[in-house]
Amino acid sequence: MFTVGLTGGIGSGKSTLAALLAERGAQVVDADQIARDALRPGQPAWHSVVDSFGEDILAAGSMDIDRKRLARLVFSDPNKLAALNAITHPVITGRIADSLERLSSSDAIVVVDAALIVDLGLDSAMDALIVVHASDDERRRRLQVSRGMARSDVNARISAQASPAELLERADIVVRNDGSLDDLSRDADRVWERLREMASG
Ligand code: ADP
Q1: Mutate to test the pocket of ligand 1, among 14, 16, 135 (most ligand atoms within 8 A of CB)
Q2: By alpha-carbon position, which residue is closest to atom 17 of ligand 1?
Q3: Does 111 have pLDDT greater than 90?
Q4: CA-CA to 77 of 20 to 30 Å: which in 3, 22, 87, 96?
Q5: Per-residue pLDDT tens for 125-174?
Q6: What is the spatial distance between Cα 139 and Cα 143, in angstroms, rounded to a whole number?
């Protein structure tokens, strides 16, 4: 197994690149999906979040956590964000470790797609780190257009994350994603080639 952290700010194009690498043969571990699963009704982290934030955090008439409302709450208050992270980060880290454990004896190139890879302290455990980088303007535009996020939500999310400079310093491979999807696809070819070299070297 060769492990690769894939990170970058929200809207930079991590998940898009992860999907392109999966098409080329990578096994992808998706931290966003893991986080969503961890907050499903009845899961331990669901109980902890409802205990900490109250039942108001549930979607009307449902046991599901209203993720938009939760995001709005925590990205406007650093103490609340710290409280949520204290609940979710250990669970996410543990589940990523379980996924890696399952693949550990394979010869797979495993890409861990996680905005939080450095915050979770996982970057040093990876054999390589890819950072996807796009300008703030481009990220804002993509998130507002494609995910329908409000401008104020986008700004709150962008400013709560590690600065790109910190991430770029740690990167083994940097992918600039300011161009078209075709450009990104060509970069995915180049990145995949490089990962295969690193994995076999
Ligand atoms: P992240 O996982 O980093 O938050 P995504 O991969 O989900 O970002 O990308 C955010 C949005 O921008 C998605 O809707 C995606 O399809 C779109 N996108 C990503 N890269 C490009 C690109 N080069 N050109 C156009 N749209 C893009």
Answers
A1: 16
A2: 142
A3: yes
A4: 96
A5: 999 999 999 998 999 999 998 888 888 888 888 887 767 787 888 899 99
A6: 6
